[in-house]
Every structure is written in C-alpha cells, then in structure tokens.
Amino acid sequence: MTTSQDTSTHEQSPRRALRWLLTGLAGISLLVLITLSAISAALGTHSGSQWLLAQATGLVPDFRYENAEGTFLRGIDLYGVSYRSGDNLVRVEQLHSRWNPMTLMDGEFHLQSLRIAGVQVDWHSDPDAPAGPPLVLDDVLEPILPLPISVRLSNARLDGATINYDDFSYTISSLGLNVSLQGHTLNIQQLSLDAEPVTLTAELEVELQSPYALNGTVDWQLDNSLLEGTAAPNGHLSVDGDLDRLQIEHELSGLTDAESRGEVQLGLARLLNARSDSLDLQVDLEHTLGTQTLPGPGMEAFTVQALTLRTQGTPDDLGLFAAARLDIELAEDFVLETDLNLRAALRGSQLQIDELAMRTASGLLALVGDVNWSDGIAVDLNYELDEPAPGNYIPGLPESMVIQDLRSNGQVTFTQAAASASGEAGQMALAFNSDDLRATVNDYPLTGSAGFDYDGANWTVDSFALQTGENQLTLTASLNADNQINADATIDAPTLSVLYPDLEGRLRADAIVTGTLNEPAIDLDLIANNIVFGEFSIPELNMTGQNRGGMNEIELTTGNIQVPVGENTETISDVLLRLRGQPDAHNLLLRMNSSLVNLRLNADGSLANGGWQGRLLSSEIDSDYGLWQQTQAAELALAADQVTLNPLCWSMGDTRVCIEAGLSEGSQLDARIDLQNYPLTALNHVQSEQNIANLTDSDFHADNNATADVRLPFTLPPDMALQGYLSLQATAAGDISDLNGLDISVQTLSENGNLYLQSEPSADDIVEGELPEPAITHFVWSNISLDATQQAREWQLSSQLRFVQNDPDSTAAAMRGSADANIRMTESRGLNGNVRLDFDDLGWVEALAPQLANVTGTLEGRLNVDGTLEQPIIGSDILLSGADFQLPALGLNMQSVEISLSSDNSERFVLNGYAESGSGSMEFNSEILQPLSEERRMTLQLAGSDFVVADLPELSAAISPDLRATASMEGIDVNGRLLIPTVDARITTLPESAVDVSSDTVIVATEEDSDVRNAAQVNRGILSDIPLSGNIQLILGDSVNISGFGLNARLTGQLDIDQRPSATPLTYGELEVADGSFEIYGRTLNIERGKLLFMGSYDNPAIDIRAVRTVENMRVGVQMNGTIRNIRSSLFSTPALPDGDILAVMITGRPIAEIGSEQEGNALVGAVTSLGINQGQGITNQIQSQLGLDTFAINSRGDVNDSSLMLGKYITPRIFIRYAVGLFETENSLEIDYTVNDRVKLQATSGQSQSIDLTYTVEQ
Q1: What is the Cα 1119 distance to its own chain's centre?
Q2: According to the 3-state scheme, what is the secondary structure of 767-806?
Q3: pLDDT higher for 932 or 240?
Q4: Poorest-confidence range of 361-365, 388-392, 1229-1233?
Q5: Distance (Å) of CA 852 to CA 810, 864, 912, 924
Q6: Which of 1, 649, 750, 918 could make a disulfide contact with 658, Cβ separation 3.0–4.6 Å?
Q7: Which residues form a coiled coil (predicted)?
Q8: Spatial distance between the Cα atoms of 1025 and 1014, rounded to a whole number of angstroms
C-alpha cells in the first residue's frame, strides 16, 4: 500500500511542475503583452510620445523644447530645443529624426535620417573646476562594446552651427555624415564638412579598441587662393595605421604641386588611455616639388626644377634638410642656374640656420644665423659671398666691361621687442654692415664698404664707399624721427675708362640734401669733360640743379657734340635743357641746334594721380625736310596704364600733319594721323627738277614756296620729276599687345598730279649743227588712291590709278586708262583678290621707252590673286591688242602686235604673241612654269617668215626663224634653224671691237669696267654665268649682200653652231662668196673663189680666197690661205712675173720699172703691208734699187695703223736725211743725223713734235 502511494506521488510531481511552468509562461506572456501594449501606446501614439518627453524633461531640469511632432516609434521632430548649464547654453532650432523599428528584427538599429539645423553653442570654461580623473577610453568603451545589435546612421546632416568657446568662435555651414557601428568597428562611409575657409570630404574606418587602428582618405580645398594668380589650394590625404603611429601620403595642388609622404608618431592612443601625460609627436616626412614656376606675383622669373625637403624630429627639435635646383630668368634668354641647400633646426620658437647656401656654376652665397620669436623677434644672420665670375650673371653687360672675383661678407641684424600689454608694437631696430667688399673691374681692383642702421627712430648711413682706380663714390646720410634729412654724396671719376673701356673722359658730381623729406633743400653740380664714346664725343657738359621751398630748377648745357650718322659725322652745336617748378606745376624748355636739325620745345605740366599731365605749348623742327611749326598747344597725359595726346599739329606752308592718340588700360590704343598736302616734289632729285623746270618753263613750287628746299633722303631716279600733293589718313584701335588684332585704316590720295620724264631726243628732232635739247614727256593723273584696312584680323587693300587726258591740245603725253586693285589677306595670311588694267591708249609708252615712236594699241587684263603670302597663286588674263609702233633706230614699223599672258594659277603661265614687220610676220608661244619658285623653267617656240629686223639705208635684213628654247635655273638650251633670206649691208665704219689684239697678247691686269678686245675674252660665256647650250642651223639665203671697205660680195652657205654649257661654241660649216670683188687703192680684184671654212672655232675660220685682175695680156692675183688670225698670202700671174711686178701690175697696172709717182709707190708698199704678202722683203728691195735710195723700209709698231714708209739718203758721209710717211695715218716726220765724230752724234727731228738730241757714246 505504501509502495503504490509513493509511486503515485512521484508520478504527480512532474505534472504539477509542468502545470506550474505553463501557468508561469502564460502569466509572463500576458505580462509581456501588457508591457508591449503599454510601450506601443507610449511610443506609437502622439500622446504617449508627449508623455515620455514630459518625463524626460522632468528628469533633466535644464532640458527644454518648444514643440514636438511625431512619435518615438517612427521618428520625432523637436523645435526650439535648448539645454542650459549655468552660463553655458546649447540651442537647436530644429531636430528631425526618422527610424524603422522593424530593422531590429534583423539585429540592426537603422536611424534613417537625422537633420539638425540652427545650432548655437555658447560655452565657458570654469578655471576653478577641480580636475577630474584622467580619461581611460578603453574603460569607457569596453562595457559598451560590442553592442548586441549593429547601429547605422544615414543621411545625418547639420546645417548652420556656431560654436563660441570662451574667446574662440567657429562656424560650420554644413556637416554631413553616413556612419555605421558593428562590433568594435566604426565605419564612416561619408563625411562632408563645409566650414569657412575649408571644405572637406572623408572616408574613415576606426577600430574602437586599443590601439585604435585607422585608415581612410580625406580630400580638402580652401575657399580662396592664398596668392594672386594661383588657384585655391586643395589636397588629397591618405592615412593608414593607428592613433599612435600613422603612415601618411599627401598631394597638394593649386598653390603649387607637391607630394608628402612618411610617418607621424602621435601617441594618441596612450594619451587617451592615461598611459602618457601628453602627445608624443614625432615626424619623419619627405616633401617633393616637381618642375614649376614659383607661385605668386613677381615670381614668374623663378622656376624650381627639383626640390626635396625632409622634416625629422619633434616640434621642440625639428630638423629641416632641403636641396633644390632653382633657375632665375634674369632677362630674356638669360637664365641663372643655381643649387640651393638648407640645413636648419626648429626648436620651439627658435630657428637655427646652420647653412642656407645658393651655389652657381662658379660662386657661392651662404647665410648662417638664428631667428628667435620667443620674446619679440630677433634675427641675427651672417652672409658670405664669393663669385669669381659675376659678369656671367649680369644681363646686357658689354663685352668691354669685365667684372671678376666679387667677394663680400657682412652681418644683418633685426630686432623687435614684444608688444606691450596694451597691444602697442615693440621697438624695432635694423642694422646692416659690410666692411669687406672686393672685386676686379677691367683689371682694376674695386674695394668698398657699406653700412646702415635704424634704431626705431633714426636712419643712418655712415660708411658707404666704393673705389676703383682713381674713381670713387662716397655717401653719408641721416634721417631722424622728425624727418630731418642730411645727406652728402660725391662721385669723382677722373678715368671713366676704368669703369667702361669704350668710354673716355672725366666726371664729377656733388649732391647735398638738407631739410625735411616734405621740403628738402637740394643742391646738385655735375660736370663732364672730354667725353668720348666711339665716334661720339662731348667736349664739356654741365648740369646744375637745386630745390628750395619746393621749387626745383635743373639746367643742362652742352655743345660741339660730334655724333656719327651713317658714314658722316654731324655736329650738335649747342643744347639747353631747363626744368623749373614743382612736381605739381613745372615747365620744360629744350633748345638744340645741329647740322641736321634745329629743335625748339616748350612744355608745362604737373605730376598727379600717379602720372604726368600737361601741355606741349610750342615746338619747331627745322631740317632738310622742312620747317615744321606747331600750330596750337596740345594736351598730353602720361600714366602707368594710360597715355593721352590730344591733337598735336605741325604745319609747313600749306602742308599739315596732325597726330592724336590715346592708350588706356595699359594696352588699348586709339590713334589717328592726318597728313594733308605733302609735296611730291620732296621725292625729286634737285638737279633733275631744275633741268625739267627750265626746259618746260614751269615752277614746281609756285603755290608753296615753303617746300622748295624740302627733300627726302631717298629720291626718284635722275631725269624724272613729280609735281603734286599727297594726303594720308590713318587710324589704329585695339590692343597693342595683339598687333594682328588691331583695327587699322590707311587712306592715301593724290589728285591732279604731274609726272615729267626727260630723255634723249629722237633722231627726227636732231638738227645738224645745233645742240640737241632733251625730250620732255609730261603725264597727268587725275586720281591715285590706296586704301588699306585691317578688321577682324583681316587686311583689305584697294587702290585706284586714273590717268585722264581731256585736253587734245595739251603737250602732255596721252595716257588714258586705269589700274584698280582689290586684295584681301586673312589672319592666316591667305590671299584673295584681283588687279584690273584698262588702257585704251599706249602713247605713254614712248616716255618709258624713248626708242619707240608712234605707239598705239590697247592694254587690258586682270590678275587674280589667291593662295598665301608665302605661296601666292596668281592667275592672269592680260592682252595687248592692236598695237603698232615704230623703232626709228632700226627703221622698223611693227604692226598688228598681239601679246597675251594667261594663267589659272601661279604654277603655269602661257605667253603668246604675234607681230608683223615689212612683208613678213613672226609669232611666239611660251610656257612659264613655277615662276615664283627656285625651280622655275620656261619653254619658247619662235617661228616666222621674212620678218624684217632692220630697214636702214646702210643695213636691211629679214629673218625666218624656227627656234625652240627651254630655260631653267640650271641653264638655257636653244635649238632649231635660223634662215636669213635677205641682207643688204653697206659697212662704212667698224666698231672698236672689230679690231682684235694679237693672239699672243696676255692680259696682266685691267681697270674695272675697262673694255678688253675680243682675243682677251677668255672663258667668258655669252650670257655671263648662265649656262647656255643648244644647236642652231644658220642658213644664208640667196640675197645676202655685203659691201664696204672695197668689198662687194654675195654670201651663201650654212653653219651648224653647237653650244655646250660653260664652253666656247663650236661652229662647223662653210660660207662662200658666190659673187664678189675687192677694191684696193682704186683697183678692183675679182674674187674667183672665196670660202670661210668653220671647223670648230667660231672666231678663227680657215680661209681660201683667190682674187685676180686682168691687165692687157697679163692675169695677176693673190691667193690667201690659213686662218683669219694667221693669213698667208702669195702672188701668182700668167704669164709668170717677178713678185714685185705681179704686185705692181695688180695695184698700178704697170711693172715696177714703169712706176713713176710717189703715190703709186706708197700704194704698192701699202699693199705689201696690208695683204701680208710673204715675198714682201724682196719686193721692197726691188723698189729701193729702182728709186736709188740708201734706205727703203716699212716700219710697223704693233698695229698696222701705225705702219710707216721710211725713205733715207746720205747727203754727205756725215749727214743722213730720213723721211717717214704714214701709210694709214696722215702723219710725216723729217730727221737729220749729223755725225760729229765717233763718239758724238747730233740728231734733230721735226714732225708732230720737235726735238734735238745729243748722243755721246762710251765704249767699254
């Protein structure tokens, strides 16, 4: 029984426990349900949220809000939130929040939005507050982290916050944040801050447990630039490490481009956990700067090629080590290359400079010293300069000035006491001293010393002196706090050549300044003697100046200055320059007299508003170009960025020129020039103008005598003169720094002008026995204009030329026509335009070519211009039609002349022509390729028939050419045939070049431009240096007749002329005398056979000539063989006769024995000489014997024209009479020789000159 009960009892216990458990769970569930219902009612309803806020306000008495909206379940908005603790206040105008409680089901609390606006924090520290326990961040975070759920905040934003902490005030314009916390990891996905003067964005990840690992990036930018001309600085920072030690990389842009990288030790984690009392900051960073120009105004000349700066240490002992390459542009195309090195240490408020050195290729400037700002500012620096070749770094230094071995050392100190308690700046002092300054100038030692100091009230310069050779400069000066100044400076340079070798002379200047800065008293005396600079010399120059009571007077006088002008030396006889007045009212007077120009100038003005403004009251310029006088006062203003010149006008008689200009904003130009009635006679050559005026009975200066002596340095060619006036107007506007962008307009005009040409009179105007007057051709133009404009970077050029001859009775040459041009040039120098010609009367050509007469015809055409200025493309269509003219010098009358020139571009021109002369005509066709390039070439075809080239009584000729020619820069090639159908030449005189010198003559030297006979023309081509080649067949027709000097012949034959480049032409062929005779000494010889055989040489053909005469039953003659330069003659007869009789019969018609007159004897001897007969000596002997003379000889002194016949006879054994008769010149002489004894001889001569000679002979 007991056993079963126990068993039942054990069975009921589990049931009872289960019942209790179920009952408990039901109660707990009910409680949770009731609690959740209560919480939901409190959080999810507006009234519940208001109740909770009221409870919070009760728990925090200093927390207040003005209004609330929303619920704690979805988000709540608060307005007018404030918290006050004593005098400290935190106020938020608006706070908006939104969250989703359902995210808790995923183990995350997500605050979807948080907006805070209008934050004002006013907080004051409590100096009496007891120090709290040190912060141990690990103890704060360890109980909290990790949270059971993650937390995420999105779209958090703060707009407008002002934080005032004691005297510190800071304003935040906006702050944006997206952040999450999971475990110990705080991840800031986005942080944006806009707080003047910087904006930044960042991404960071931080481990919230020691040592607080950190990595992320920060991008920042300042709102404004720090230096003018640079962009606002910005940078990119990357960090990696923890709060004790960080690795950083930073890139700086905007202000300059620099990179920094290295390690920063903070010790911040130890500080936050009370393991240290302060930050343990140490840096080891390297900063690099690439090639760039230093930023900031005035720094354009400094270019950093490479810079490296290393900073190592702590803030109390920071080492600075730098090396850089710096290029300094001292002048255009002149760069100083330097190396910079820095070793320094920053220890608290002191910078110790161990070395700051600038090194050039040869020199060194070094600074050492300290800068301390612990109590005010104290600077103490020593410098040392050593430069062996300083002249290498002085731009524009003349080669004649050599500066070497520049050395100096000294000290610079500066101190300023700390500001007083009231904020007043402390006393300042500055001193510079250099006791050792040395250099060598043109091998002369230069020594000097310098020093000045400022004690906060007084400036003193007591040791400034320079000396080289005998030249020295000294200066002492002082300025006290009351602006009282006392300065004395002296320059004494008796040997200026020491300073500048090309300069000679002596200079001394003394200046004394006393008084105050506002009212100084200044005395200046300067005198220079015997100044010589090249060909420029000043015997003496004096300048004096003084200032009293604000009135200044400076006067400079000099004279007898020698000035080289071109190849001449001109003299400035005297110069006076006087300046009187004050800066705000002064007068300038300039007077200069010289051999070139006399100048007078008077102006007044004032210095105001950073510039000068005044009036040019009067001016006068007197020179060979006229006497120009200013017509009225002109206002002139000069400033740094503005120049103004109101109309400034000069006149010379009726001629007037005015200039008006303005320059604003430093570069904006607005200018105008107006020239009216400038005389064209200024271009005339004086003698030519006078000659033409006398011949035309005209006065070129009748209407403006003031221009009679005006001549420009360049004149028209002689025998030409102009009469008329030229007017010009020009304007320019725009930026002078961009000349191509200026708006420019130029207009020139000349109306009713006259052109006179003087030439030799034509043959018809020459009257025998009277001195011929030159011919004057007079042209009149009605209008010549040229307009040019540049707008929108394009040039437009237009010109007009109008010749009109309305008076048919006028003696002026009839020139009727026009020439117009319109051409445009773009900014890229592209061309587009045309030129038009239209002349319906060509009579004016006679003035340009006096050899022509009765010229008629028309000239019209058009030139089209395209392409660029460097490579123009010219198309043309020009036609000369219906032209006739006469060429009196050749007796020609050219008719129906037609010439055309056409092209589509500049690469190919076609020139065609046709003309008639006599009964024949000729035409030509030519093609010119690339005429504007170095590869220009031309082809020509010339064809004609019986074209008359001369029609004079003494010469008439016609040709029938069929020639082809090509030409280029390499040479000219001519081929074809030239037929000469008719020639009728009657030669009465020979040109000088027809008489050649002997073939063995050697030209040693000749005067410049002297004529040399043909045989001396060695290796000289027909066209000078232009290579000529070709092959021409020359054919003589059946009517080629030549007569002259006793020769009458009709020629026939053919020659082949072969010309090779730079060689003598080769001629092959034969010319034959078909019919002919030769007359000598009144006797006619018939030419039975006459040939000229050309076998290469054109000027020395072989000859084969046989001439005969028949007298009664005798047939005598002469046979000539050899070459033109070496003729061999022989006599023959039938029947056979002695040579003397052959010649006598041929010349006189009788044998020698029958010659009875002296005239016949002279003729016979002349024939011997002129014909070069080989048997000449035998013939003269035969004549001597026949006449019974002791001497009978022919003397020839070089030229055959100097030959003479010598006849002599002994009267007694001691007296000999000699008589000489010129064979070709009408000269004779008589000589008598008297032999006194064997040693003494007396000789008397009478002829063109008379002389008596006594000869004494000594035998050894």
Answers
A1: 76
A2: CCCCCCCCEEEEEEEEEEEEEEEEECCEEEEEEEEEECCC
A3: 240
A4: 1229-1233
A5: 21, 31, 21, 21
A6: 649
A7: none
A8: 18
Half-sphere exposure of 512 (CA within 13 A, CB side): 4
d(Cα 655, Cα 292) in Å, to the nearest integer?
58
Whether the Cβ atoms of residue 426 and residue 417 lie closer than 8 Å to each other? yes
β-strand pairing of 743-759 with 720-723:
antiparallel
pLDDT of 1210 > 90? The answer is no
Contacts of 1233 (CB under 8 A, 6+ apart): 1215, 1216, 1218, 1241, 1242, 1243
- Count CB neighbours of 1078 within 10 A: 20
Q: What percent of the chain has pLDDT over 90?
A: 26
Average pLDDT, the chain: 82
Amino acid identity for residue 1010 in this structure: S
| Alpha-carbon dihedral sign for residues 1205, 1210, 1214, 1219 | negative
Q: Is the peptide bond before 564 cis (omega within 30 degrees of 0)?
A: no
- How far apart CA 631 and CA 656 sit, in angstroms, is 9
pLDDT digits 0-9 by tens, 796-851: 888 887 766 544 444 444 567 788 888 888 888 888 888 888 888 777 677 667 67
Phi-psi region of 642 (alpha: psi -120 to 50; beta: other; left: phi over 0): beta
Q: Where do runs of H (alpha helix) occur along 2-136?
A: 2-43, 46-59
Distance CA(377)–CA(630), nearest Å, equals 62
Q: Sort strands 831-839 and 536-548 into parallel, antiparallel or unpaired.
A: unpaired
What pLDDT score does 1120 carry? 85
DSSP structure string for 666-725: TTEEEEEEEEEEEEGGGGS-HHHHHHHHHHHT--TTTT-GGGTT---SS-PPTTEEEESE
Q: What is the pLDDT of residue 1189?
A: 64
How far, rounded to the nearest angstrom, does the alpha carbon of residue 998 sit from its chain's CA centroid?
A: 58
- Cross-strand partners of 1217: 1209, 1232
Measured distance CA(648)–CA(619) in Å, rounded: 10
pLDDT tier, 206 (very low <50, low <70, confident <90, very high otherwise) = very high
Q: Can you tell me the mean pLDDT for 860-887?
A: 85
Neighbours of 1012 (CB within 10 A): 14
The predicted structure's pLDDT at residue 27: 46
Q: How far apart are the first and last CA of the chain?
A: 207
* Helices 2-43 + 46-59 axis angle, to 10: 90
User: Does this model's pTM top 0.70?
Assistant: no
DSSP H or E segment with residue 1170: helix 1158-1171
| 269 band by pLDDT with thresholds 50, 70 and 90 | confident
User: Which contacts (CB < 8 Å, 24+ apart) does range 565-570 have?
Assistant: 565/596, 569/535, 570/594, 570/595, 570/596
Chain CA centroid to CA 185, Å: 70
- Say how far apart CA 812 and CA 120 lie, in whole Å: 102
Q: Which residue bears the tokens 């009358």?
A: 893
Distance CA 682, CA 709 (A): 8
| Alpha carbon distance 402, 404 (integer Å) | 7
Instruction: Give the model confidence (pLDDT) of 694-732 as tens digits.
Output: 888 888 887 777 777 788 888 888 888 888 889 999 999
Among 7-16, 763-772, 862-871, which is the least confidently predicted range? 7-16
Residue type, 716: L
Residue appearing with tokens 């032209």: 883
Please tell me the distance from the alpha carbon of residue 319 to that of residue 694, in angstroms, as a whole number: 97
- Residue 211, preceding bond cis, omega within 30 degrees? yes
> Which DSSP state fits 868?
B
pLDDT, tens only, 542-553: 999 998 877 889
Residues whose CB falls within 8 Å of the CB of residue 968, separated by 6 or more in sequence, listed in order: 935, 936, 937, 938
